[in-house]
Amino acid sequence: MAEIINVSAIAKTEKEKLKSRILTYKAEGKPVPTLATVLVGEDPGSVYYLEMQKKNLEALGGTMLKITLAEDTSEEDLLSMIGELNGDDKVHGIMVLFPLPKHINEERVAESISKDKDVDGVNPINIGLLASTSGGVAPCTPSSVVEILKNIHGELKGKHAVIIGRSNIVGKPLIQLLLREHMTVTVCHSRTSNLPMMARSGEILISAMGRPLMIDEKYVSEGATVIDVGTSELDGKIVGDCDLESVLQKAAYATKVPGGVGTLTTTILIRTLLDLYDESFRK
Ligand code: NAP
């Protein structure tokens, strides 16, 4: 019987662990874990996301320093603000909301965030460390996918996953995270030939394209687990890459959108914040 994965329950369990970690810090007389966020402009989606993130973090006992800069802020001023946050001992993680206005070079901004406070793994040093060592910081979306897979399957070693999408923020870091789990990984993209056949070759299918409802049962092998990372707007509604009803004709497990991967990402971001926090006390 096909099952829709209860990602909210996974998030709830993870939140309990994070809450107890923060209570331990408090008992040890350590400072409150603090995430600094920097938004340039007033993109409504980002404003809403930050409000949710703040609520979640505060509910667990952490705190968020929300910095909003005007849309016409210069790159120099943004870099100087990040420099200040890098040097501030009270700040344990920094997240700059992308995309940035066109006059700001995103690569330069990503490089400017201290690798030790880079909570969403955008600094190229962390990207390199993720690929070449057991360290580095992974972005919260691919980390959430791994968390969901571990919850469903326990051991991932030897399983074959097909990822559709090779972006820097989802597909590429996910390759590294799945390889760390000793999985076999196939990566597909817009130039892949015979995508349905490639997709069916995996016992796990992860779609991160942003192509509304494109994935149906033709892409799914019997008994597969399907993780839908895509979020798009279609006729005023948020939908994923998967046509869930069709996918569930073949899959054993699948996530839905909304209420899937996105339900876990803010929690995983807080877990990364706490990992960076712990690391800062080891130095
Ligand atoms: P992106 O940078 O646009 O990358 C999309 C990837 O999908 C690219 O690698 C592209 O291939 C591939 N692709 C596009 N159309 C395809 C097709 N018809 N067949 C095969 N491959 C195709 O997007 P992203 O930032 O990775 O985000 C992907 C989706 O995940 C979006 O819907 C986004 O909103 C969502 N997302 C969700 C969360 C969450 O928390 N749930 C977080 C981040 C992103 P090429 O490389 O060849 O162009």
From TrEMBL:
Pathway: One-carbon metabolism; tetrahydrofolate interconversion. One of its GO terms (biological process) is purine nucleotide biosynthetic process. One of its GO terms (molecular function) is methylenetetrahydrofolate dehydrogenase (NADP+) activity. Residues 5-120 form the Tetrahydrofolate dehydrogenase/cyclohydrolase catalytic domain. CDD domains: NAD_bind_m-THF_DH_Cyclohyd (cd01080). GO terms for cellular component: cytosol. It comes from the Bacteria. Catalyzes the oxidation of 5,10-methylenetetrahydrofolate to 5,10-methenyltetrahydrofolate and then the hydrolysis of 5,10-methenyltetrahydrofolate to 10-formyltetrahydrofolate. Belongs to the tetrahydrofolate dehydrogenase/cyclohydrolase family. This is Bifunctional protein FolD. The gene is folD.
